[in-house]
């Protein structure tokens, strides 16, 4: 296969939401007519109780959150970076969360708003944060099989009730987006590898206890380490970025990876927030602003979803 290059832009939601304001949203606007409420009414109480148990009712807890239609922010950012003026063959929209408007198809809306013609829009979801890795794998497959020259992958998540922003010891889930532009001949990074490994407890996540969550985290650490070691047999890994799932997950992976003479870069801005499928890209952007990664050096981005598994993207800094 010919080389595949990419450039990454990431943005955290420009506004924040206090924990108490977020909790009050559970009682606002979710009646029998709302599709999300109808689908998940049986889980709403457990979601809310999980947030209360995690302490999100405190005013000091502020979480980056989109206001209104989050696709408007995506369209504005893309237009500012000129993506609406260039030819895009593929538009891949990756998401873990479900939008509040059941009648809106974000990939189709973004395509129309940007005026992208002769562009194939599609979405990838129902895989937790691994949707981002699956999206990259699909884009990679299109470049192999079709005369594709430019592809745009968007990872956007906006948590709305009745879904939860925090479960057990995991970090609170914040809203963010990332835009990845793929081409055959230029970009900040070259894609060397994209892959994932599934793992999950044999119990519905909505029935998990705190002990179950901790057991799932240990499984994820083992699976992430195994996948990274498999990749390292074929490719050098100079830097590693892991999704901010929880303090215990990052500490456990860092200890295990250090035993392999590898280091884990962790961001300082919003360090205790999990930005879901955009999270490793947010950290990568901070890393770029703090560290000079030399041309030829590689960065492994680790994506994690407790109820799905682990995925890795290996990038190499371009000249």
What is the top-level CATH class of the largest domain? Alpha Beta
Tell me the strand order in the biggest sheet.
5-4-6-8-1-9-14-13-10-11
C-alpha Rg (nearest Å) = 19 Å
Number of helices: 8
Main sheet overview: 10 strands, mixed
Say what oligomer this is: single chain
Ends: how far apart?
20 Å
- The CATH topology of the largest domain is Peroxisomal Thiolase, Chain A, domain 1
CATH superfamily of the largest domain: Thiolase/Chalcone synthase
Could you explain how this protein is built, in words?
The protein is of the alpha/beta class. The chain contains eight helices and 14 strands. The strands form three sheets. Strands 5-4-6-8-1-9-14-13-10-11 form a ten-stranded mixed sheet, with helices on both faces. It has a two-stranded antiparallel ribbon with strand order 2-3. Strands 7-12 form a two-stranded parallel ribbon. A hairpin with a 3-residue loop joins β13 and β14. α3 packs parallel to α4. The longest helix has 23 residues. It starts with a strand and ends with a strand. About 2% of the residues have low confidence. GO terms for molecular function: acyltransferase activity.
Concise summary:
By secondary structure, the chain is an alpha/beta fold. The protein has helices at 19-24, 35-54, 70-80, 106-114, 131-145, 210-232, 247-258, 279-290, and strands at 5-12, 16-18, 62-64, 90-94, 120-124, 150-157, 172-173, 176-183, 189-198, 239-242, 264-265, 273-274, 298-305, 309-317. Helix 3 (70-80) runs parallel beside helix 4 (106-114) and helix 6 runs parallel beside helix 7.
